[in-house]
Amino acid sequence: MPLLAFVSSITLVHSPSSFFLLSKLSRPRMSSSTSPSVSIPIPQNRVVLGLGTVSVDFLAAVTSYPNPDDKIRTTSLKVQGGGNVGNALTSAARLGLTARIISKVANDSQGRSILEELEADGVHTSFLVVSEGGISPFTYVIVDNKTHTRTCIHTPGSPPMVPGDLSRSSLLSALDGATIVYFDARLYETALVVAQEAARQNIPVLVDAERKREGLDDLLTFANYVVCSAKFPQEWTEAPSIPSALVSMLLRLPKLRFVIVTLGENGCIMLERITNETPDQLEEFEVDSLLEVIKGRKDKNINIPTSVSSPVAKLRAEGIGTVCGRLLLGTAEKIPESEILDTTGAGDAFIGAVLYGIHDFHFISSLMCQHATREVVAIFCPGGCWMLSGFGCSKRSSISYRSMLSIFLTINIC
């Protein structure tokens, strides 16, 4: 079948026709007494265990990033909890999952602040190790208002977490009833111990692959799901393009069910492995060419997020191999520059939504959309699945609550 004829069966779905009403909504609080008329059912068996870094973030916004020896003033300053696993589990907990965390802090003011903020958002901290001495992790985040970028300067906690900090009984208790385990690829020695036990118990694993790190290759061998940064797939596989790199990842990691690469303002790409089809009955297409045709199916005249999903096919990467699966392209809302403050925590909020999606067949692929002046989650339904899609999250305080999702359903999103 010619590629263009094949693509005629591609599913294109739009989000709501207008975000004007949503732009006027304030962030719902967990204690809000109002309840939307439409609610999203919380998935059953919904315990996510996360292991990785937590920190206190000092977020300083500046007019533009300073030159060497410059003295400048901030335009705003916010101090709050951060760290990949801390942010992602906050997102998951606010969406309704039961979240547990394994990490390490010191018994200092910053460590106590980290614990209090996680607990206030419903994240279970009983497996978080507290050292009587040392310092808790913290990060200076410089937000450039001119370029809408952020620079992170991280100070690791001391003493670092080691496998001996987590007893066998604590490990088994943390995994008891868990339906997925999430790793941000830090604290890799302890992460590998937890991943091995998760695999022994047949608990699925999601790995956040931002960049090459010590121990990440070993951790990826346990992964059923991977969410990675824009540069990681090609850096890790040395493939010539992102689509061919995604094919390579599925071939190199046989347990992998899907991989998502986040592309910031350009949305995301997801390659999902399909195993319940007969390969001989599927059409075969070169994956880079298929992605280009999918991109051509986007409606360039709209600002709102859209999702384009290919039918199941044999996807070939030249010189690499072939996998059976489908390719999904999630676009992002075109946000005016004047409304973008910073994107700190966007990837972590995305992963929180993915963790939710894995627990509910209605949310097979998920992407959290947040930004400071309009706290928005755009929801739409590609091929019978739900996807939350968009660009940007301004700090942990902007991560949405579950009640926001219900509000979207009340205004006929799908």
Automatic annotation (TrEMBL):
The keyword S-adenosyl-L-methionine is annotated on this UniProt entry: no
Transport found in the keyword field: no
Alphabetical list of PROSITE patterns matching this protein: PFKB_KINASES_2
Highest rank taxon of the organism: Eukaryota
Pfam families: PfkB (PF00294)
Alphabetized Gene3D superfamilies for the sequence: 3.40.1190.20
Domain Carbohydrate kinase PfkB: 51-272
Molecular function as annotated in GO: kinase activity
Alphabetized UniProt keyword annotations: Kinase, Transferase
SUPFAM superfamilies: Ribokinase-like (SSF53613)
Family to which the UniProt record says this protein belongs: Belongs to the carbohydrate kinase PfkB family.
Name of the protein in its database record: Ribokinase-like isoform X1
Native species: Cucurbita maxima (Pumpkin)
